[in-house]
């Protein structure tokens, strides 16, 4: 097991009280594997990433959680537990490439900064060469010229490639990509995903892809975990989950995807899309029973009382979901 | 256009505006000087001067001509660097001003350098741990520096280090040929002038740094394990210095203004004390020449500030900033 995250819980202290952003979330990612972490806004996806990196906001507190990365264990409740891994064992690609590079330093300087840490023995010339090489690998045209350009001279997609080049240079065991294509044109999405997969193939790292898009996950990921209101509701291989969603929430998420061949009405307002009605539960007070109970279309009486365990779906050991309907009596 | 062409165009357009600004400021100042009540002849010659002598001096200074004529004469001469002859000392006014300018520039720039060298590190240290006791202590220090008037600071420094301890000279700008002596004479006045600016700069640097540190590109550096010292002291600081440098341009006017007080207290010759004495005498031509130089200095300083900012932030030279 290359990467494992066990029982991660994170609280945010807010003026209105303590919000429990994550409750006992566990994940496993094999080397060379892409795990998609799916959930709607506010489900705690990015909190998982920042807790792993140790970059949570000051009002956040990890109340429990252990990460095992490349055989070493880290107690995430300690501040900066994984500081030694940043830029070495772990790298991250961010949601907003327009903002994630420093506007007053050249691309080259920022890439070489990553190398200062990753290969401390190298001299400047060697670093420049490695950085240029990385830009070439992420298919940024004219890498030598790019090195002396500033971020504002590059498009969003090009800037995201620069950040991917940074990740490439740091040769991580775990790459976290937090909504890497959300802020970009749809036309660039496939290219950026291809570069992330290319990076994975080159260094054989594990990739945690955080996204709200099931489409992205089913297209590119090996396995997926579904996060809802800070709890993991389902996990399995993409094929398993796609064929037989174990949790009603996962099934409803798939139903929300708009099939490309669906018939369209001439009057756009006549079109009907599937939505999941209701809102996320109050993160300060978890209701008893199943966390999804309020919005579930197949709930029964016990769902409001019993907090479901993590049950296997069908006969496949790796595919599990937290729904009482799967409990064997 | 390439970046260097854009930079050249940027500088050219700024130089054109410099010429216009100096012309406008000169006109304004010419009119304003004449609003000061009292006239040169009665101040200089006293109430018992003969009407003939008054008329002679008034004629020598060109004050008997019409305003439009005076302005034209002043402007056309000033454009060629001729500010006329001083009726008191019978020396060319240009020479008088050029004699004292190096003293004032030395004072202003040493004060500015001191303020930057002390103020920026204080701001950086305060921003490293916002809300800590160190931050609060530095805030108290900075704000007391800002709120104590230069006049009070000058007198206190003067009393302690010059009169009380005899560590440093009391007055003057020092022996012209002796660099060490001049530097010793420069210490107290420049500290007095710099102190308020130490406070300003440290507060500005702290605020700008904290704003910058909240930006997303800082998170990128942290995610790649760049040390907090390099992030604050290099990557965030360069960006945070842009607003600080902009304010320095405006602040240089204040620095020259405060130098009037400092030069008088420490009895230094300089453009500040020259203006002060000339206004007291209603010696308009000298005042005018001084102010033209100050305006020119101020404008050139701001041009330099803009160029420094264009160097710091490449987005400015493109013309968007």
UniProtKB/TrEMBL annotation, chain A:
GO molecular function per UniProt: ATP binding; ATP hydrolysis activity
Topology with respect to the bilayer: Peripheral membrane protein
Identification of the protein by name: Peptide/nickel transport system ATP-binding protein
The keyword Protein transport belongs to this UniProt entry's keyword annotation: no
One GO-annotated biological process of the protein: peptide transport
CDD domains, sorted: ABC_NikE_OppD_transporters
GO CC terms of this entry: plasma membrane
Originating organism: Rhizobium loti (Mesorhizobium loti)
Automatic annotation (TrEMBL), chain B:
Keyword Transport: yes
Listed Pfam families: BPD_transp_1, BPD_transp_1_N
Major localization class: membrane
Presence of keyword Cell membrane: yes
Domain of life from the UniProt record: Bacteria
CDD domains, per the entry: TM_PBP2
Keywords of the record: Cell membrane, Membrane, Transmembrane, Transmembrane helix, Transport
Record-annotated membrane-spanning stretches: 12-36, 105-128, 140-167, 187-210, 231-250, 256-279, 286-305
Membrane topology reported for the UniProt record: Multi-pass membrane protein
Family, similarity comment: Belongs to the binding-protein-dependent transport system permease family.
Protein name: Peptide/nickel transport system permease protein
Organism: Rhizobium loti
